[in-house]
Prior knowledge:
By secondary structure, the protein is of the alpha+beta class. The chain has helices spanning about 5-10, 15-35, 50-95, 120-130, 150-155, 170-175, and strands at about 105-110, 110-120, 130-135, 140-145, 160. The longest helix is centred in the middle third of the chain and has 46 residues, at about 50-95.
Amino acid sequence: MSNSLRDQLMKSGLVDEKQARQADKEKRAQRKKAKGKGGRKGQPADPDAAARQAQVQQARAEKAERDRTLNQQREQQKKEKSAAAQIEDLLREHAISTRDGSIPFHFTRDGKVRKLEVTAEQQKRLSRGELAIVERKGRFHVVPSDVVPRLHERDATLFVAMVTAADLSSEDDDLYREFPIPDDLDW
């Protein structure tokens, strides 16, 4: 009763043994071919698989680019935070106190004349270019001029008021030599 179609065809004489083996061979080849195309046993191959695979690859590439950009931003933020901490440390370590200052020292910031109360010694050193004034977070700090390059390495946008060698040149002195400044002049 459970005779297969093949067995029934062979008994009736419509198909001989050789033809039955050939049919089995072709059937196995078709199954193997269907499996090789990505289909499962009895299922046809998926024609959209290549398109989906390309979309997956593109999505992975976009995600990798987003991750790379995000990591670069995080690294930049870490560098900026580290530089800010180093600047704070340098200012804390090298800043000279102006609490006892009673002599005004004038300098310009953004086209405005600013005033900082310093001691007589600090005024002399500021005028000779040995000290500099650095602004950080709205406060002015007096630091030695050799600290300024290290501060600019960390943040090039820091405001620095410092007398340079060009400011100390004697060209202007020659022009005004015949007009002496009175000793009792107070700015």
